[in-house]
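Limitations
The structure tokens in this dataset are predictions for the assembled complex, not deposited experimental models. Users should treat interface geometry with appropriate caution, especially where small molecules or nucleic acid strands are included. An illustrative entry is reproduced here so readers can see what is and is not provided.
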Amino acid sequence: MLLITCPWCGARDQSEFSYHGEAHIARPERPAQVSDAQWGAYLFMRKNPKGLHRERWVHSHGCRRWFYALRDTRDDRIHATYRPGDPPPDSAADPGAANPGSAT
Amino acid sequence: MSQINRLADGGRLNRAKVIRFWYDDKQYEGHPGDTLASALLANGVHLIGRSFKYHRPRGIFSAGPEEPNALVQLENGPHTEPNRRATEVELYEGLVAQSQNCWPSVGFDLGAVNARLSRLLPAGFYYKTFMWPRALWMGYEKMIRRAAGLGRAPAEPDPDRYDKTHAHCDVLVVGGGPAGLQAACAAGATGARVMLVDERSEFGGSLLDQGPASGRGGWDAAQWLVARLAELRQMKQVTLLPRTTVTGCYDDNFLVANERVTGHLGPTRGDHAPRERLWKIRARRVVLATGSIERPLIFADNDRPGVMLAGAVRAYINRFGVLPGRRIVVLTNNDSAYHTALDAYRAGATVEVVDIRRHPGGQLTDQARALGIAIHPNSAVSAVDTARGKITRVRVMTLSEDGGEVRGAARALGCDVVAVSGGWTPTVHLFSQAKGELAYHHDLHCFVPGKPSAANPLVGAGACCGAYTLAECLAQGRDAGRDAAAAAGFAGCADSPPAAQESEIAEPRDGPVRALWVLPCEHPLGRGPKKHFHDLQNDVTVADIHLAAREGFESVEHLKRYTTTGMGTDQGKTSNLNALAALSEWRGAPIPEIGVTTFRPPYTPLTFGAVAGHERRDLFLQKRTTPMHPWHEQRGAVYEDVGDWKRPLYFPARGEDMAAAVRRECLAARNAVGILDASTLGKIDIVGEHALELLDMVYANAWGGLAVGRCRYGLMLNEHGMVFDDGVTTRLGEHHYHMTTTTGGAARVLNWLEEWLQTEWPGRARVYCTSVTEQWAVASISGPHSRALLAQLCDEPLDGESFPFMSMREFAVAGIPARVFRVSFTGELAFEINVPARFGLALWQKLMAAGEPYGICAYGTEAMHVLRAEKGFIIVGQDTDGTVTPMDLGMDWIVSKNKADFAGKRSFSRADTARTGRKQLVGLLTEDPGFVLPEGAHLVEALGKPPMKMLGHVSSSYLSPNLGRSIALALVEDGLRRKGETLQVALMDGGGHKVTLTDTVFFDPDGGRARG
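Predicted assembly:
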């Protein structure tokens, strides 16, 4: 069972958290004006990298707040966790992350 | 003739006390400190079971958790436990054990005919034999299950209690042998919180087995042990857990250990203490001092009772004061077994050593020679002769140059025990479970811990790392303990532990090992009557491995599953490496290239009781009940589970079945007044200046025009445009709303709101969402008399003008402050009366009393479903399944045309969402009005031979008492356009029923009753 650091509460057992998929999927500002392909990409297209992955977690059985984690899918190491709105941690070593600046 | 094999003195026993126990209906005696195995050996009992497949007689093989043979059925009745390793069962007064897998008795077993048929039971036998005809597999399975298996599971519920606990520590030391003790002392001295866990009843590990006479110069093992334990007991932050097995290692140093709290005392001796306690330990650092397990050499008929691991024989002599045999042949490829030879000789046995090495030479062999112990070098045991289940002699032949054959005349050595050693295999289970990489040690011929995984930086110390001398173990233990504490943030302190007295230990240096895995006999492997077993528990021979490899099962994981080697309760603790070696020889590839099978938890079997703990029966799953529950109980409600809630399904009157009760309830709610406990509805209090913005985003309809005190039904969609919840939301104040959700969807909806607020509008939205589901109790009264009933209990004008449909008023009902919502899920005039939860039962009772003259009738969820289906109201999750849009439900009217954006809107114009021919919700009327369609049944154009094209399915189906006929809702391809058509509903019996597609509203289509 992973030990996950909630940016508000600190390190807690994985069983307190829920996983919510890839992070930083930006919802189009004006959905009516995007193409079907763009909307489809927002709805369905997700990365499945072997390596570093930015993802959303929620501390369901704790503070109930969402946060982001930078996890290596190869060994399940979580390199960083950060709050929505915070700038993502340095992503130099993070070839897998798209839109690293848009913490929406 | 009691305890014929018990030595006059020695062993860690309380000889002053005699324990009586029963094995296979015979009474024996032993002493406190004995295991069942040691006590049986003391009484001369070697034969203890029949093997899994061939039913060959088997005896006690080891003295620890690796035992493959000596599995017993412990105790009777509800306390009975199958497959207990006799080598680990501590003896207690009155213990009762039975041998397993034999009938009628272990001495005379009818299943032994399998041994004669062994030609017909090759590797993969089950896969080869029972594959065809496929239809018979179900029958075969029953037969196989009966024939295979070991012990019996208890038939009665477990009467014992099991506990679970969580623990955090800085350093967890697994294994309390010399390395582990030293590690715990070193770590404890830094002030770190240390847990020392060991599976045995006593700490000391191999020191307990080795006895005092092992020639370590002036070093006194017993004294050292007492001193270390005293030291540890003085440290307040050190927890000592004997009789506790660490069974699994998971991510981030999370380990699970099972403590046998009172189980070793026998049934019902625990009083109020639990039988076992499962520890869930989160450790900052872990030191593995798990030791090593001896592996046997494989030779012809090496499974006979009396063939034992050499280290086990030594343990029985030194720890238990039992000499398993009078004449012992030691068969070895290494020096460690000479300890056994020497200890057995000193205990009074006649000893001869068969050493497969050409030139055994070391300090130990010299000592043996000096005592006159005969050593047969470059030799192998080629046959084991038995009489009446006991070994009488072995035959020994000379090995060829490459060890592939035996030559010359066989020499017969009389003996009753063969003590065998093929070297030692480090216990790397936990290291490997933690995804650490194993490295092959070419001198010791075994796998040792290599690179630890990033997730679990475990450190090994002692024999589990291939350190086989005491001095090495102590030094590694001390270093590992100190380093682990430092890594956990505890730098050493001034009074570091006293330097281990390694220099005082005079240990003989071991000579090299000869890696010869399978000892030949006069016949080639697999020919002739003799068998070379490498896996005793699963009855797998080296010939089986060769056969499997010939058939293409060359990968270790395939080999394991095909031959079953390494499976079962021992998980191949004594056999895995030998199996790898046999495969490696066959393939001509080195062992590291062959690899190992995955080590999975648990290390030794866990009881279901330990895993379940207290989480059984009522504590297995939480049960949510409403404040009105006592009334439901009193009225004998039949419940259904909705989420975790217990909701009354119906309230049967005396002698009523479900159909009659539901019919009565449905009629009352339309013709008089019905009352429903609606407290379980999800309720969310939404407050803040952006509340309206949030509602407009998560609901498909618009909320702008809603006045304070008014209610509106809303449909919630996900971003795919699919319906995922619905409910009525009421505006309580300028920026204050009361949202209701489906009972099962309450948590999901709250999460969805929070997700939107926190991740789409972080820091921007000033809205607070609070679950108030359990703060409000809700009684919903419905039917033509509901207004008159409510008027009895309040002073408020309730006419349609003062209190119109879809509005909310706050006033006292029966003196209780209430929020009353004039909303309706039945299509009748209805009021949902919300009161603070603590008044829920009182409100209900007042309503029931006041309603009596009006014929009030409590109704359950089944009647609620019928009533809403009569009105064509959907149930999200029953009539929708996550692929249904509002348009598919014919609810286009609810979707806002004016809002620029809301969750799911953009998806309406996606090609698949916008296309025609989607599955859409329609009503169904059966040809026979009395026939109720089964929910889930498929609709087809016409009945024919399967496969038929499925057009949709029945989502709701009831007998409607108010309409006097059956009604149903269904999702049907292009259903809205097909209204008026007839289709067939295919039934399970192969027949069908004709239905007409209709509108979904069966009752009061213009809705006048609810507004009235």
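Some entries come with short summary sentences. For this one: The first strand of chain B starts at residue 19 and ends at 23.
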